[in-house]
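Let's practice the habit of predicting before peeking. Look at the sequence and jot down your guess about where helices and strands might fall. Then scroll down.
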Amino acid sequence: MSFADKLLKYQEFPFASYLAGVTGADIERTLTKEALVERDFLNLLSEQAVPYLERMAQKAHQLTVQHFGRVILLYTPLYLANYCVNQCAYCGFKVTNRITRKKLTLEEVEKEARAIAQTGLRHILILTGESRQHTPVSYIEECVRILKNYFDSISIEIYPLTEEEYGQLVAAGVDGLTLYQEVYDPVTYDAIHLAGPKKDYRFRLDAPERACRARMRAVNIGALLGLQDWRKEAFFTGLHAAYLQDKYLDTEISVSLPRLRPHVGNFAPCSVVSDRDLVQILLALRLFLPRAGITISTRERAEFRDNLLPLGVTKMSAGSCTSVGGHLEEATEGQFDIADQRSVREMHDMLVSRGYQPLYKDWHHL
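Done guessing? Here is the structure:
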């Protein structure tokens, strides 16, 4: 059994009529529970839950402090390359976009690593476009060997791999995976992934589980909010995380809530996700998954990120750029525009001023 079987259970589920039938009494009852089931989670994503956001926020804050303390793990992305073989309608890196393509040499990887490490960060997320030809696993492995000299935790956000390939990177020093399904609805998935290996919905859906089996220490998943009805996508993201959390007890499971941002191209969101909607998703996820990490990246505005801080967030990016060579002098076009331009030091100061401890390193290999 995989999460795909779980999704099948909801293939014919009448989401619209169910959500329309949720009552205030359902929300009240849900908020009294210590552990939520799937229907409770869906109740909290309904329109009828909006008047209860303040109560949800209070409970989300209490659960977060209980399980994580007042600590925020900081990290930054490092783009190794932007070559891609896919045609994803919503992505600035898609193969048909005329942008400057670049792949860091190993010498440039070391320069970027040194520049990032000087900020104090010891947790890094390395990214590529999705091209096995230009950025094979062997190249990523070579980069990781260099980065291990500067960072205690290295996560990857690349094309989906086989279980054996994930194991190869774990052996090289990778300890975390971020992989977004982009959209859980298979019809929409097929429509917006126009060409390339990324059209293989099932291979991507099963990738986080393959990483868990390969003994990846941490796995982070999510849907790209804006590609489909956000209530359904948030629901499936939560179910996917719960499935992984229940099945792989020695893997830390977390979720991200990325919203579509401006990028090279003219793709318009299919579903607008407002700030209030994002808050509701965050709170519902925290109440459904009290032990899951939740990441809010620099896709969101500085003021908004600051206000989300006490609602369930456990991890934030800082000093981000989405271009290859972004920490050097000659950068390419970014994958998308970021909204929070603050440096690591500025993020540190903001967290301390709000009574939170910025965490630069949460573990290291013995």
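How did you do? DSSP finds 15 helices and eleven strands in the chain.
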